[in-house]
Write a structure and sequence with these properties.
Elements (H helix, E strand, L loop, with lengths): L5 H4 L4 H8 L30 H13 L3 H23 L8 H26 L2 H4 L4
Helix pairs in contact: 3-4
Length: 134
Amino acid sequence: MDAPSQDDLALYTMDDILMTDAPSPMATTTTTTTTTTTTTPTTFDKNEFSFLPQVQGIVQSILTGENSDEIGKAVVRLNERMDQARLLLQDLPGLQYVKEEQEAILRQESAILHHHQDKLKRYIQLPAFTYGSE
């Protein structure tokens, strides 16, 4: 039996839903543990993308004629920082979308949210939830 869609659930009472999901007393139960990981929004310090001071230091070292090994090490450190910044940018969610697509997705998800909020308001007004509050 297929699971009912979100719109089909509006046709069922809470008793119908509970009865279809309840296991049979004769059924054997198996407990499974599911671990869910929540992803926190990627945050970063804007200084991670500030390369100008490092570039200025390298240019200054070249102009003053400092040790070329130190200059080479500074360039390698700059390249590593740029690679880290590039990796950080690649991990940002939604990067593949242009601004207009992101706005369209936001409007669509907001409409879904409002739809679910309206459903919740209607469900809360059902007699099963308002019975003892009068």
